[in-house]
Amino acid sequence: MVHTDQYQGKLVLVVGLAKSGYAAARLLHMLGATVIVNDGKSIDDNPQAQELMEQGVEVICGSHPLSLLDRPLDFIIKNPGIPYSNELLVEAEKKNIPILTEIELAYQISEADIIAITGSNGKTTTTTLITEMLKNSGRTPQIAGNIGVVACEVAEQATMDDIIVMELSSFQLMGTDEFRPTISVLLNLFDAHLDYHGSKQNYVAAKARIQAKQEESDYLVYNASDDLVKDIAEKSHATKIGFSTTEVLPDGLDVVDGFVRYRSKPIIATSDIMLPGSHNIENILGAIGASILAGATLTQIQFVLKTFGGVEHRLQFVKELNGRLVYNDSKATNILATSKALEAFDKPVILLAGGLDRGNSFDSLIPSLQGVKAVITYGETKDRIAETVRKTDIPTLELVSTLTEAVKVAYRESTEGDVLLLSPACASWDQYKTFEERGHAFIQAISELPK
């Protein structure tokens, strides 16, 4: 950790605890800041707040009183999950109080170089690929960020012999100021989180912050086939490395004659890549580009691509069961993610889908349903998904209440050579607290099927 005195004596308000807020408050307190913690949960149900209070941190729980802004705050650290529409944050912006996320704090204290990855889809897969590719490279990769590991905690422990591989959401990037990764990766941009950002323009602007402070000595690895990404890259001061699955890029990463290439040099045959799905080739190209720039060996890159079967809950291969291939894509919480998953297979698919009902139609899923032989839908959205399926020629449609029931029906409707795919196209919150919990429930239900 860089031992900085820039926070000494600063008055900082940390809004929202959870893992990132707790870590930021603890770190700032250790660095000599005067920290006030404000969390919506009551103090009685908040062990993190109680622990901080025992360390001498001022804690105000149960509401977000505007009177907090009467103090001469130097800045606010905001939990990414709290929207900017929160009244306290709205008033803070009016007072021109800087609102940051702990990502900025992580950058300021990190001795290690940072590789930062963002995009609408594929962040976790790409982040994990880079981390695996950098093993045996001479520096130890440390995974952090939106993937579930608090960035400032990792930065606190990292040394110059490490390299931090950081997955970043638009929520996290929106709260950065001087953040400057050595290598940034921008995968793709689709409509997402518009309820949080208010408009697509704001969402794209948040994502663009990943490279906003980069200079020529830094690198931007970007999707040259995505127009929104290209627009950001054209304005970037970083050294640019493009990738594309549809264009030939002699100075970048591309796919030609069945080979993934870097600067026209073949890296690996696409037939040797274990990770399924054409969309994952883009993630792989981004990962290869960042990894080579960071010092990964060709041998390690090839080994990872030949053996890596996917991130847990993201098109994760579970097992072969009596001739059926079982995949867990519980992280597919929107229609676009499920479309990408369906397009990954050239075998007949039994699709299990359903979850939280947000009132939207699923008709945009229709073009991706061509290879589906049966849909088993469950949960709050089962009727809405069924409406869409009835507009296709899919021969089998079953509506059930729970995911466990859906697994039993899906297996019953399947034959050898089929793919059993959980790709819900919905959030999990009608029946499960998280998509991870849903994925584990799916795997458990699969394990209980007859062998």
Automatic annotation (TrEMBL):
One annotated GO molecular function: UDP-N-acetylmuramoylalanine-D-glutamate ligase activity
Residue intervals of the Mur ligase C-terminal domain: 313-426
Top-level EC class: ligase
Subcellular localization, as worded in the UniProt entry: Cytoplasm
Pathway as given in its UniProt record: Cell wall biogenesis; peptidoglycan biosynthesis
Record field: catalytic activity: UDP-N-acetyl-alpha-D-muramoyl-L-alanine + D-glutamate + ATP = UDP-N-acetyl-alpha-D-muramoyl-L-alanyl-D-glutamate + ADP + phosphate + H(+)
Cross-referenced SUPFAM superfamilies: MurCD N-terminal domain (SSF51984), MurD-like peptide ligases, catalytic domain (SSF53623), MurD-like peptide ligases, peptide-binding domain (SSF53244)
EC number per UniProt: 6.3.2.9
Keywords recorded for this protein, A-Z: ATP-binding, Cell cycle, Cell division, Cell shape, Cell wall biogenesis/degradation, Cytoplasm, Ligase, Nucleotide-binding, Peptidoglycan synthesis
Binding site for ATP: 119-125
Gene3D superfamilies: Mur ligase, C-terminal domain, Mur-like, catalytic domain, NAD(P)-binding Rossmann-like Domain
Superkingdom of the organism of origin: Bacteria
Entry-linked Pfam families: Mur_ligase_C (PF02875), Mur_ligase_M (PF08245), MurD-like_N (PF21799)
Domain Mur ligase central as annotated: residue spans: 117-290
Primary location recorded for the protein, binned into one broad class: cytoplasm
Family of this protein: Belongs to the MurCDEF family.
Job description of the protein: Cell wall formation. Catalyzes the addition of glutamate to the nucleotide precursor UDP-N-acetylmuramoyl-L-alanine (UMA).
Name this polypeptide is given: UDP-N-acetylmuramoylalanine--D-glutamate ligase
Annotated source species: Alkalicoccobacillus gibsonii
Species classification: Bacteria, Bacillati, Bacillota, Bacilli, Bacillales
